[in-house]
């Protein structure tokens, strides 16, 4: 039985050892909790707050970027519309000015044509009046010469030739 008693000591359960091991474990857990778990949990909590803040800032920046993009696109569309309106207005104004210039030019050309026709008619009447005056002066001169001279056929031919020559001048 001695052999048995030696094996029993080896296999025997020592309550003090178990209590000391549990006590050591509790002290170790308390020390780890005090110096390791709380600071680690605080760091984890701070990181979670920082990450949450970063996500909220990112969401806010994204929303602002979307709003600015919409505003930019709206302004771009407004600018395109305004440019189209300006081009249309300028085109319409150019067409109106072109039509007015053409109308003024046609009226001026018509006025000048009428003025030229009037000048031509006046010059023709003046030339006709001068010709009548010249012819009547010649006839009077010829009549005076005929009355002063007796007319013989040679003198008559000579007077006619002189009158024809003076008309040609």
Oligomeric state of this protein: single chain
Order of helices and strands: HHH
Structural class comes to mainly alpha
Largest sheet descriptor: none
Number of H- or I-type helical stretches? 3
Share of β-strand residues:
under 5%
* Tally of DSSP β-strands: 0
How far do the termini sit from each other? 185 Å
Shape type: rod-shaped
Summarize model confidence as the mean pLDDT: 84
> Which stretches are poorly predicted, pLDDT < 50 over at least 5 residues?
1-6
- Give the % helix: over 70%
Number of domains: 1
Task: Pick out its properties.
disordered N terminus; mainly alpha; rod-shaped; 169 residues
In summary, what is this structure?
By secondary structure, the chain is an all-alpha fold.
Q: Which helices and strands, and how do they pair?
A:
Elements: H1 2-11, H2 15-148, H3 153-168
Helix pairs in contact: 2-3
What does this structure look like?
This protein has 169 residues and is mostly helical. It has one domain. It has three helices and no strands. It has helices spanning 2-11, 15-148, 153-168. Helix 2 (15-148) packs antiparallel against helix 3 (153-168). The longest helix is centred in the middle third of the chain and has 134 residues, at 15-148. The chain is rod-shaped.
């Amino acid at each position: 039985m001695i052999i048995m008693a030696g094996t029993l000591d080896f296999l025997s359960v020592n309550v003090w050892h178990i209590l000391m091991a549990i006590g050591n474990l509790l002290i170790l857990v308390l020390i780890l909790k005090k110096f390791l778990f709380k600071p680690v949990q605080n760091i984890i909590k701070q990181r979670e707050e920082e990450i949450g803040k970063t996500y909220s800032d990112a969401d806010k920046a994204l929303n602002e970027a979307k709003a600015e993009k919409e505003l930019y696109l709206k302004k771009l569309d407004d600018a395109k519309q305004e440019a189209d309106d300006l081009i249309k207005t300028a085109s319409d104004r150019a067409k109106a000015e072109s039509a007015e210039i053409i109308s003024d030019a046609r009226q001026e050309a018509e006025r000048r044509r009428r003025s030229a026709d009037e000048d031509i008619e006046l010059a023709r009447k003046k030339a006709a009046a001068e010709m009548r005056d010249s012819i009547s002066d010649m006839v009077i001169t010829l009549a005076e010469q005929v009355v002063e001279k007796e007319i013989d056929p040679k003198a008559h031919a000579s007077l006619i030739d002189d009158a024809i020559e003076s008309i040609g001048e």
